[in-house]
UniProtKB/TrEMBL annotation:
Disulphide bridges, residue numbers: C41-C46
Active site: H455 (proton acceptor)
Enzyme Commission identifier(s): 1.8.1.15
Name of the featured protein: Mycothione reductase
Organism of origin: Leucobacter chromiisoli
GO molecular function terms noted in the UniProt entry: dihydrolipoyl dehydrogenase (NADH) activity; flavin adenine dinucleotide binding; mycothione reductase [NAD(P)H] activity
Pfam families, A to Z: Pyr_redox_2 (PF07992), Pyr_redox_dim (PF02852)
Top-level lineage group: Bacteria
UniProt keyword Aminoacyl-tRNA synthetase present: no
Record: residues binding FAD: K50, D318
Cofactor binding notes: Binds 1 FAD per subunit.
Family per record: Belongs to the class-I pyridine nucleotide-disulfide oxidoreductase family.
KW Oxidoreductase (keyword) present: yes
Length: 479
């Protein structure tokens, strides 16, 4: 059995790969990766999904054009061409990243699953043991599969496999009401498939501000079939390779009402992702875990055991973070990189004003508190909200926009912006100025009036959503 010693060992080549900075050039690094080099975001996550969202939105072009008195037609969608274009860009990036690391003299790549074997050591499947001065667990998360008959049928997919299928399905069942389900329902419906989305709860994207979540559920229902209060009960294969699904209506009274059969070409299951702490053997190694399987870390990203940080052991990204977002994993990686290199000057990761977006149709974005959370935190009398319709701004007229909403939430006593939630075209971009104001502590009025906003750009939606808040302007407010 081989034993390797290292100054730094990393489990996971997603965000973990970025830790190998020039600081480690003259030191020994071991990087373990069980799967495709580069992790989730590059290979099966953020990047390829958005590369499918773009053509899907393009295929929807005629819908918007029709509102603008232009007749267009989407002639055809070349799924295979699209898929191959997307992955012929992504796969070489993964390959090149792998090759680059493999060729570095100071880096040892272990392409196997590894399990912790002590505070800063792990063992690979072939028995290779690694003993490290510092160890970072960046092993990510994986899709949760419900325990229903037929879940392993070949046409039942998760986000890991659905983007590589051989043809555009005609009928798609999407199971779930969160980020992944809503993005893929948008992608496939835009590309012309008949999509049925089932969701256990009463609304899609229930983590968002309730007003926006309701509005989105309604809008989504105009674009594809949305059935809330439904759970998947079983799946079976038909003779011609399709999948039949039995769906239960939650809370229905009589036996006849409760079952909804359906036949689909593929099923996409998106019911959340669980941290890979079990795959690395975190519990057996004595590490503290949250109830959902996340590894517990302190503000410096140090892994906890018995409530105390383990010397030289860090974690980052989906395996420890409540927010399974790439920009969060990247931020935590920068913090870990700093803390590895500067043990006497540890820096904390920041958790305030973390935005997210769902690239569905219409697009969604949010940051900070929802109205309900703000009321719980500071009392209804201190909360002010504004819902700005895209359609009530000049660019919204140009777009003939019918559904876009930008909601802001603030503390009416001092104008502190507490949160925002957006549904509509370019929501992920329009929300960014609010993230800026929240991150730098600029109150709503100063931020809205203290700068020029280009007229009549769509960003006036953001400006008006801030100006509409009932907040103090200050003694000598900007004009
Ligand atoms: C379909 C989809 C779309 C997404 N879209 C977005 C988006 O638009 N924006 C956004 O911010 N976030 C998005 N996310 C979330 C984002 O991809 C993740 O939050 C992020 O990639 C997590 O990075 P990570 O470094 O923690 O883990 P990963 O990138 O998953 O890296 C972990 C690596 O560890 C490896 N590993 C695990 N266990 C072991 C082991 N025992 N031994 C060796 N190796 C191991 C895995 O194979 C994996 O490669 C999306 C996720 C999915 C699934
Ligand atoms: N654009 C983005 O930033 C982006 C895109 C995709 C994924 N992600 C990240 O990946 C994570 C995972 O995505 P996801 O969509 O799988 O999870 P999610 O947490 O967003 O949604 C899971 C959904 O499944 C439902 N659910 C869970 N268990 C269920 C069960 N047994 N039966 C019925 N319904 C059940 C939940 O109520 C929820 O609606 C997201 O939380 C997000 O952090 C981000």
């Amino acid at each position: 059995m081989t034993t390797l010693t290292a100054d730094l060992a990393i489990i996971g080549s997603g965000s973990g790969n970025t830790l190998i900075t020039p600081h480690w050039e003259d030191k020994r690094v071991v990087l373990a990766e069980q799967g495709t080099f580069g992790g989730t975001c590059l290979n099966v996550g953020c990047i390829p999904t958005k590369m499918f969202v773009r053509p899907s939105e393009a295929a929807r072009g005629p819908e918007e054009a029709a509102r603008l008195n232009v007749t267009q037609r989407t002639e055809a969608v070349d799924w295979v061409g699209m898929r191959d274009r997307i992955f012929s860009r992504i796969d070489p990036i993964s390959d090149a990243g792998r090759r680059y690391r493999d060729e570095l003299e100071n880096v040892e790549l272990i392409e196997q699953r590894v399990r912790l074997a002590g505070a800063r050591s792990f063992v690979a499947e072939d028995g290779t043991r690694v003993e490290a001065e510092r160890l970072v667990i960046a092993a990510g998360s994986r899709p949760v599969l419900p325990d229903v008959p037929g879940i392993h049928l070949p046409h039942v997919h998760t986000s890991d496999t659905v983007m590589r299928i051989d043809s555009l399905p005609r009928r798609v069942l999407v199971v779930g009401g969160g980020f992944i389900a809503c993005e893929f329902a948008g992608i496939f419906s835009g590309l012309g498939a008949e999509v049925v989305q089932i969701n256990r709860g009463p609304r899609l994207m229930r983590g968002l501000d309730e007003e926006i979540s309701r509005a989105y559920t309604e809008e989504a229902g105009k674009n594809w079939t949305v059935r809330c209060g439904r759970v998947l009960s079983s799946l079976a294969e038909t003779d011609d390779g399709a999948v039949t699904a039995e769906i239960l209506v939650r809370g229905a009274q009589s036996e006849e009402e409760v079952r909804e059969p359906g036949e689909f070409d593929i099923v996409l299951v998106a019911l959340g992702r669980r941290p890979n702490s079990d795959l690395v053997g975190a519990a057996e190694a004595g590490l503290d875990l949250h109830g959902d399987g996340r590894i517990a870390v302190d503000a410096f990203q140090r892994v906890l055991s018995g409530g105390r940080p383990v010397d030289g052991l860090f974690a980052l990204g989906d395996i420890c973070s409540e927010l399974q977002l790439k920009h969060v994993a990247n931020h935590e990686a920068r913090v870990v990189a700093h803390n590895l290199e500067h043990p006497d000057d540890l820096r904390e990761s920041r958790r305030d004003a973390v935005p997210s977006a769902v690239f569905t149709h219409p697009e969604l974005a949010s940051v900070g508190l929802t109205e309900t959370q703000a009321v719980e935190r500071i009392g209804a009398e201190n909360v002010t909200c504004k819902v700005q319709r895209y359609g009530d701004t000049a660019y919204g007229w140009a777009m003939e926009d019918r559904s876009g909403l930008f909601k802001t939430v603030a503390d009416r006593r001092d104008g502190r912006i507490l949160g925002a939630c957006v549904m509509g075209y370019q929501a992920s971009n329009l929300i960014q100025p609010v993230v800026t104001a929240m991150s730098f502590g600029i109150d709503a009025h100063t931020f809205a009036r203290g700068q020029y906003w280009i007229h009549p750009a769509l960003m006036e939606v953001t400006e008006n959503a801030l100006l509409g808040l009932d907040v103090p302007a200050g003694e000598r407010p900007p004009l």
